[in-house]
Amino acid sequence: MSHPDAVIHDRATGVAADTVAKHAEAQPLVFYAGWFCPFVQRSWIALEEKGVPYQYKEVNPYKKEPHFLAINPKGLVPSAEVHGKALYESLVLNEFFEDFFPDAPKLLPEDPVEKARARIWIDYIAKTIVPAFMRLVMAQDPAEQSKLLNDYYDALKKYAEQIAPGGPYFLGPKFSLVDATIAPWVVRDYIITEHRGYTRSAAGEAWEKYSQAIETRDSIVNTASEKQYYAQIYARYLKNEAMSEFAKALRQGKSF
């Protein structure tokens, strides 16, 4: 029996399709991706920011083919294959790219204190902001939706308080892995605007300005497909019918 989430458009579209086409040739680093996945996008953004060679390979993680399972036993995207070795987990991959491409633009600060601080806020995004966003998307009861919307605003305000004065990015003028980590949920916030009453302005001026800077960044624009192709996927989340590993973990009150 096929996975209920397996029926999706089979490739990136729009500007993202152009980015895929530029990375079709074989390279030492193979990036296994699903165009629709926000976890993929955060690592894809990092690759594009670094401007390094990689081969993009589209996979449907809900159709677990043998070679892909060999690359990632969890059968999840993103994954990478480097010199015949498998790597996975988006935040691990982003740090790996920093080490594997030492001459490429750095996305973490050189200063150890600032680097540690960046990692603290990456962890906050992963453990607080992303789950809060998805719980809001999946909530069905109006009263629960209202509570979760306020929880999401609180999480965003706490983050926005830490944005460097003058921005436009979290650490200041330079884009970093902190920004790459949160960006996919910034560009998907139209979903909760249309269906859950969210507005950026309600999270404060700092968040609103930051969001605008993020959504117009080239690496983010160039890794986003056309909105209509996301609709089928998020319709299942909005009905709390999605069966992704992330959705199942949230229902069980677990982190992902």
UniProtKB/TrEMBL annotation:
Keywords: Oxidoreductase, Transferase. Coiled coil: none annotated. One of its GO terms (cellular component) is cytoplasm. InterPro entries: Glutathione-S-Trfase_C-like, Glutathione-S-Trfase_C_sf, Glutathione_S-Trfase, Glutathione_S-Trfase_N, GST_omega, GST_Omega/HSP26, Thioredoxin-like_sf. PANTHER family: GLUTATHIONE S-TRANSFERASE OMEGA, PTHR43968. Residues 27-105 form the GST N-terminal domain. It comes from the Eukaryota. Transmembrane segments: none annotated. Residues 111-246 form the GST C-terminal domain. This is Glutathione S-transferase. One of its GO terms (molecular function) is glutathione transferase activity. The keyword Disulfide bond does not apply.
